[in-house]
RNA sequence: GUCCCCAUCGUCCAGAGGCCCAGGAUACGGCCCUUUCAAGGCUGAGACACGGGUUCGAAUCCCGUUGGGGACGCCA
């Protein structure tokens, strides 16, 4: 038997962190067993702009490298993979359920059901439909219909016994049938609901393992009931713990960004990303841009491998120390048996740590390729860049070293790409380091040295600086900060001599002159 | 409210009766390095929710308490 798993996103316009974790585990399980991973689009609730809402999700999967063997855009033997296009098939299944007596036509109104529900709540017991408006014969149906009622199709759930199954993550689980609702599977207008559609599609697509979040655990009995009534063999289930909010045990949800921003580390991650996205001219609003959404990481310049590796370890581990996995290693070692049963909260800071490691492991060339779209995007270099521009980017990437945590961090160094006159001064830094007694004279004298330094490279500049402070009889701190602010506009940055060398003699001299002018 | 689930450092994980006065990662503190910012090196602090059992022995098994969470739709 070939293992077949699926992930079934609803087209919502974005790919959620929790969803990707579920998809990743499905993907890994399928790959581990040499099976197939499919994508099914759960759009039974008539979607308006399907392609618009779906594209970001597919893009997200592609970016992460989670390829699907069957599904939208790639097709497959069971196409179409959109639930909305399988309505006839679902309706036929509903008919079959009716015919076998596993379901019945129910003529209750929404108000009547609600009233029963309210009563149950008042009596502090679990609601169970009375089946008062159930029609099992044509005569009963006709009677209700002549009274102007219309019918939905409900499952006729067993009212005794238990539903027991083995869950690959939770172990043996058991539910009492008597606690299960007579769920509606088809509306009066003929459209079918998720649980029916899902059971039918899983069967039709030959899904062998349903790996999904725990919130679906309590849906399992009714889906198994549907499968059995339709004569299907039930798939194997595995219910993953949900991903929790940063620093909390509550389920992570996409619509709570403002709440998450109160969490210090989450806010830091958000601010870091928002600054980069805004520099690129993206409109950043809580609804469209958040560390809870996968696209955030792409926009900011994370490595997809970092995100995947982090997510892998959210609820799964190999042992007590292995943290870094290649795709091949993940696939080789992944097992549902080692998935945790308790929820894990999402920690953007730890994710960043994974990202740093991945970034550092990349070659300079690879980092340059990651960084280029960002400098091009803000117009710091041409698109595509000229050879000298590319060389400059390479120099900056090399000099910045570990300071480049995400590709978008390159935007912290615009001064290496701007014309001298465009470099912005950090006023606080300028006041503290340049606008000080004696600094102008020292800057002028150091400038004289720069004119003749040869070659104009980092070691020689370093030497020149040390010679300078020795002959002047000053501490290095009395000049070096001023030079940095004059040349880069900032008080912080990577090695000063590397920076000066990258800028070149002409730019350094011009920038020192500009700072001196500013003092006058 | 009803049903179900979960419970080890702040966070993510290891631990499937003795290897554990609990290990790794991350975050945090200190020191070192240092022209700034990072990084790095060394180092420190930090947890088995509580109470009962079972056992020669429990973080590990059982029961209860407490705490946290999830599901209870003609949503998916």
What does this structure look like?
- The chain has 520 residues and is α/β, with parallel strands linked by helices.
- The chain is built from 21 helices and 12 strands.
- It has a 4-stranded antiparallel β-sheet.
- β9, α7 and β10 form a beta-alpha-beta unit.
- α11 crosses α13 and α19 packs across α21.
- The longest helix has 16 residues.
- The mean pLDDT is 94.
- It binds one RNA strand of 76 nucleotides through α4, β5, β7, β8 and α6.
Q: Layout of helices and strands, plus pairs?
A:
Layout: E1 4-7, H1 17-32, E2 36-39, H2 50-64, H3 87-100, E3 103-106, H4 110-122, E4 134-135, H5 138-146, E5 152-155, E6 162-167, E7 171-176, E8 184-186, H6 194-204, E9 209-213, H7 220-229, E10 236-240, E11 243-244, H8 257-260, H9 264-279, H10 294-300, H11 304-312, H12 327-333, E12 344-345, H13 348-361, H14 364-377, H15 387-400, H16 427-433, H17 439-452, H18 458-472, H19 477-488, H20 496-503, H21 505-519
The structure holds one RNA strand of 76 nucleotides.
Q: If strands are numbered along the chain, what order do they take across the biggest sheet?
A: 4-3-5-8
Largest sheet: 4 strands, antiparallel
Shape: elongated
Low-confidence stretches: none
Distance between the termini: 82 Å
Mean pLDDT rating: 94
- Class of secondary structure makeup: alpha/beta
* Percent of sequence in beta strands: 5-15%
Percent range for helical residues?
40-55%
Number of strands: 12
Oligomer: single chain
| Number of DSSP helical runs | 21
- What does the radius of gyration come to? 31 Å
Structure characteristics:
two-stranded parallel sheet; four-stranded antiparallel β-sheet; 47% helix; 21 helices; 520 residues; elongated; alpha/beta; RNA-binding; 12 strands
């Amino acid at each position: 038997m070939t293992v077949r798993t699926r992930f079934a996103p609803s087209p919502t316009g974005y790919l959620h962190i929790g969803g990707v974790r579920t998809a990743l585990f499905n993907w890994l399980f399928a790959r581990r067993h040499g099976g197939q991973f499919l994508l099914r689009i759960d759009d039974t609730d008539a979607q308006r702009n399907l392609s618009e809402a779906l594209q970001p999700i597919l893009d997200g999967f592609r970016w992460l490298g989670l390829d699907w063997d069957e599904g939208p855009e790639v097709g497959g033997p069971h196409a179409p993979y959109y639930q909305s296009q399988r309505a006839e098939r679902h309706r036929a299944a509903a008919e079959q359920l009716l015919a076998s007596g596993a379901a019945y036509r129910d003529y209750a109104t929404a108000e009547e059901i609600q009233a029963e529900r309210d009563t149950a709540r008042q009596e502090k017991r679990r609601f169970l439909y009375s089946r008062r408006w159930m029609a099992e014969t044509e005569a009963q149906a006709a009677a209700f219909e002549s009274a102007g009622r219309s019918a939905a199709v409900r499952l006729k759930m067993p009212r005794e016994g238990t539903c027991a199954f083995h869950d690959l993550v939770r172990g043996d689980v058991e539910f009492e049938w008597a606690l299960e609702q007579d769920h509606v599977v088809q509306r009066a207008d003929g459209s079918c609901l998720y649980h029916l559609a899902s059971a039918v599609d899983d069967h039709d697509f030959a899904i062998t393992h349903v790996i999904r979040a725990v919130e679906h655990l309590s849906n399992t009995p009714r889906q198994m009931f549907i499968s059995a009534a339709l004569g299907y063999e039930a798939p194997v289930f595995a219910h993953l713990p949900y991903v929790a909010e940063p620093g909390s045990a509550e389920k992570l949800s996409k619509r709570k960004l403002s709440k998450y921003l109160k969490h210090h580390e989450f806010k830091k991650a958000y601010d870091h990303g928002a600054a980069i996205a805004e520099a690129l001219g993206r409109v950043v609003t809580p609804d469209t841009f958040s560390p809870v959404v996968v696209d955030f990481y792409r926009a900011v310049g994370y490595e997809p491998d970092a995100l995947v590796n982090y997510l892998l370890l959210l609820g799964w581990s190999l042992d007590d120390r292995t943290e870094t996995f290649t795709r091949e290693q993940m696939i080789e070692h992944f097992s549902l048996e080692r998935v945790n049963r308790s929820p894990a909260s999402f920690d953007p800071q730890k994710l960043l740590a994974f990202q740093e490691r991945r970034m550092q492991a990349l070659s300079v060339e690879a980092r340059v390729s990651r960084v280029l779209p960002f400098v091009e995007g803000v117009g710091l270099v041409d698109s595509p860049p000229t050879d000298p521009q590319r060389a400059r980017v390479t120099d900056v990437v090399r000099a910045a070293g570990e300071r480049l945590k995400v590709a978008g961090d390159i935007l912290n160094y615009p001064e290496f790409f701007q014309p001298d006159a465009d470099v912005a001064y950090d006023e606080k830094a300028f006041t503290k380091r340049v606008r000080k007694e004696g600094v102008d004279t020292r800057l002028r004298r150091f400038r004289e040295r720069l004119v003749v330094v040869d070659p104009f490279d980092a070691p020689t500049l370093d030497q020149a600086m040390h010679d300078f402070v020795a002959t002047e009889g000053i501490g290095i701190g009395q000049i070096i900060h001023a030079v940095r602010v004059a040349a880069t506009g900032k008080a912080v940055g990577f090695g000063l001599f590397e920076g000066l060398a990258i800028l070149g003699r002409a730019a350094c001299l011009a920038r020192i002159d500009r700072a001196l002018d500013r003092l006058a």
